[in-house]
Amino acid sequence: MKPDTVFKRAFNDALELVVVLGDGAQLPSENALKVRLNVSRTTVRKVLARLAGRGVVGGRGAHREVRSIVRAAKAKRFPVAETEPLSAQVEKRFMEWMLRDNARPGTAINELDLARRFGVATTGIREFLNRFQRFGLIERHPNSGWVLKGFTTDFALELFEIREMFEMRSARAFVALADDSPLWREMDMLRQEHLRLLRKIDQRYHDFSDLDSRFHRVINSASPNRFIEDFYDIITMIFHYHYQWNKQDERQRNAVAVREHLAYIDALLGRDEAMVLRACVAHLASAKQTLIRSSSRGLKSSEG
Amino acid sequence: MKPDTVFKRAFNDALELVVVLGDGAQLPSENALKVRLNVSRTTVRKVLARLAGRGVVGGRGAHREVRSIVRAAKAKRFPVAETEPLSAQVEKRFMEWMLRDNARPGTAINELDLARRFGVATTGIREFLNRFQRFGLIERHPNSGWVLKGFTTDFALELFEIREMFEMRSARAFVALADDSPLWREMDMLRQEHLRLLRKIDQRYHDFSDLDSRFHRVINSASPNRFIEDFYDIITMIFHYHYQWNKQDERQRNAVAVREHLAYIDALLGRDEAMVLRACVAHLASAKQTLIRSSSRGLKSSEG
DNA sequence: GTGTTGTTCTTTCTCGATAAAGGACGACAG
DNA sequence: CTGTCGTCCTTTATCGAGAAAGAACAACAC
After folding, report:
1. In angstroms, what CA-CA distances link A71 with A9, A17, A21, A57?
2. How far is the CA of B142 from the C1' of C4 (A)?
3. Is the pTM of this model over 0.85?
4. How far is residue A231's CA from residue B227's CA, in Å, rounded to a whole number?
5. Which of B130, B134, B149 has its CB closest to that of A127?
6. Phi, psi dihedrals of residue B140, rounded to the nearest 5°
7. Which nucleotide is nearest to B61 (CA to C1')?
8. Cα gap A108→A105, rounded to integer Å
9. Mean pLDDT in runs of 10 for chain A (304 residues)?
């Protein structure tokens, strides 16, 4: 049976939207809502029906209006856990298991066990593992199961070897961009976002993760390549969970990284290839160190 | 329900093995058979029971012997289709559909439709698509379906951009290998295999595909990196089906490629980095041309 | 005609069930 | 005590079902 996570998320979003619209406001058409809530019209109608049932909106057909934003504000939201698709939940739980719990490299991964532990059917686990395989952290043995390769130092080193190749290539392509490319403007805006973040780094340091990913993706978009973009999914995922897991020195590390980005951005905007490559290498080297420090020792070390 | 493809393949293999052993020969232990047939002991026992039932082997427990290789030779093998796991069958059928049939870039991929067409449950299709996603030929739209990006010229270009970066890096690492590395010997053996193939190229030209893949993987093993190895899976897959599909000039193309490989190998064995890189670039350029010639035009061209 | 809503059909996502394959344990032989 | 086989339990690979989400079509309004 399919869960109604899409509906629940849309319902929560719709409540916020209604509050913004204000009492008595005419509701946008179903098609317009469909775009704003990012769901199909079928789901929009289900949401509207529920809102009407709660007395938040009134009228019918084309003549719907907001009846009570007080009720909308007070209405109980669905808990976030119920608004996420199963795949996202499984991913979170799995990463937590791997990074926080026991999970030594070489550990056998048991579909049935994970299914029981996460409270989902084995199908959901299988689907996750199949998609997750491409991140290079697990290995499949047909008819037998999966083995955790784990987030080891080797993993971090191999990841960064590729990352450096890709980033250098993309940085070069970026410098070679025509002067009228819209990417220059985009880069300038990223620069300002970095400056804003740096000014409030003490409060906002956890916003860096997202900015980091966007920055590197813009550089890559100078000369798009699907395999490089796919590879960035791996990096984004690793850093996402790494940040969540290793809070040590987070503010400090991120402040450093923002400054490195700024040097890198300035070099890019100055079209100075040599300086770009220097800044790029410097930034990647420190990112690599950060990651390696928190990786697990892997199978080679004789620790028991 | 799980299909017994493993059993059927093992049974077929066991029949061949029995013929080799000869009448009256003592059978290897269950553990030994398990290794030779590449299955669990449970399956070995099932195979033995069936062989005994057919009068091919006799005796019980530790005292089993071959009773009749005539019966073994005559016994009906299971058809190959029944010895392949579902996933392999789905992959084949899907690639055929994509490369041979209509399948224009942008085509919607319908799980239910494919399931009906291939005669499997939707779960099987989903599992395949999830694993196949990493090859960059399809794209997922949650709750809605998949879209075929297709084997376009862009795909081939992006593939080869990465391939060149990886191959150059690995070729450099190979040249820098210590003189006592076992890989030198392995490379020399590959050289001889190439020479043997070249001598009989008119009959054996379809053996090139496999040799090609092994050759490039050995080069990569000079400095192993899981992401590069994973990327080679993509190349291997593409070339595998490409060869099956585009038979045009196959003999001619492969003869050329073998000669390019030999130049490349000789440069490697001579530890001449400049020459290695030249040979490598030359080989990749011609492989790229081959692939591009048979790629589909993609979405950009205005052909209807 | 363009855009709206009402209606119906199709497809995706997830579950639970079941046979096959794998793996663990004990008993026994040399 | 090492290797073998017999037995039993666990896990994987696949199917089919069913509710949710998406999509197509028709009817209607401006």
Report:
1. 18, 13, 13, 10
2. 27
3. yes
4. 9
5. B130
6. -100, 135
7. D5
8. 9
9. 96 97 94 97 97 92 91 95 96 91 87 97 97 96 96 95 98 97 97 96 90 95 97 93 79 93 97 96 95 69 36
B residues 106-125 closer than 8 Å to A (CB):
123
Residues B204, A280: Cα–Cα separation, whole Å: 48
Q: Which residue has the tokens 């979405």?
A: B299
Q: What angle do CA A5, A6, A8 make, to 5 degrees?
A: 65
Residues 6+ apart with CB under 8 A from A25: A65, A66
What are the residues facing B145 on neighbouring strands? Answer: B141
H-run or E-run covering B39? none
What distance in Å separates the CA atoms of residue A177 and residue A271, rounded to the nearest whole number?
A: 9
Report chain B (304 residues): mean pLDDT per 10 consecutive residues: 97 97 94 97 97 92 91 96 96 91 87 96 97 96 96 95 98 97 97 96 90 95 97 93 79 93 97 96 95 69 36
Instruction: Name A residues 210-239 whose Cβ lies under 7 Å from strand D.
Output: none
Enter the DSSP assignment of A147: E
Helices (H) and strands (E) in chain A, counts: 14, 5
Answer yes or no: are the C-beta atoms of B147 and B108 closer than 8 Å.
Answer: yes
CA atoms of B134 and A65, how far apart (whole Å) = 46
Q: Which helix (H) or strand (E) holds B33?
A: helix B30-37
Distance, Å, A63 CA → D28 C1': 15
Q: Among candidates B235, B152, B134, which has minimal Cα distance to A230?
A: B134
Residues 45-74 of B with CB under 7 A from strand D: 45, 60-62, 64
pLDDT in the model for residue B59: 87
Task: State the Cα angle at A78 between B123 and A33, rounded to 5°.
Answer: 80
Residue for token digits 């591009």?
B292
Q: Indicate which of B123, B147, B162, B299 best probes the interface with A, i.e. most A CBs within 10 Å of its own CB.
A: B162
Place of tokens 């012997």: B65
- Angle between helix A153-175 and helix B153-175 axes, rounded to 10 deg: 120
| pLDDT at site A250 | 83
Residue B97 contacts residue B103 (beta carbons within 8 Å): yes
List phi, psi (to 5°) of B194: -60, -45
For B125-158, the pLDDT digits (tens) are 999 999 999 999 999 999 999 999 989 999 999 9
Sequential DSSP letters for A40-82: -HHHHHHHHHHHHHTTSEE--TT--EE--HHHHHHSPPPPGGG
Partners of residue B58 on adjacent β-strands? B65
Contact A276, A175 (CB under 8 A): yes
Exposed / middle / buried, residue A274 (Cβ in 10 Å: 0-12, 13-18, 19+)? exposed
The C-alpha atoms of residue A205 and residue A75 are separated, in whole angstroms, by 33
Helix (H) or strand (E) holding B66: strand B65-66
Residues of A in Cβ contact (< 8 Å) with B161: 225
Looking at residue B299, what DSSP letter applies?
S
Cα–Cα–Cα angle for B155, B158, B161, nearest 5°?
A: 150
Q: How far is A8 from chain B (nearest CA, A)?
A: 15
Identify the bridge partners of residue A147 per DSSP, sorted by sequence position. Answer: A108, A139
**Collapsed DSSP state (helix, strand, coil) of residue A146:** strand
Distance from CA of B87 to the nearest CA of A (A): 11
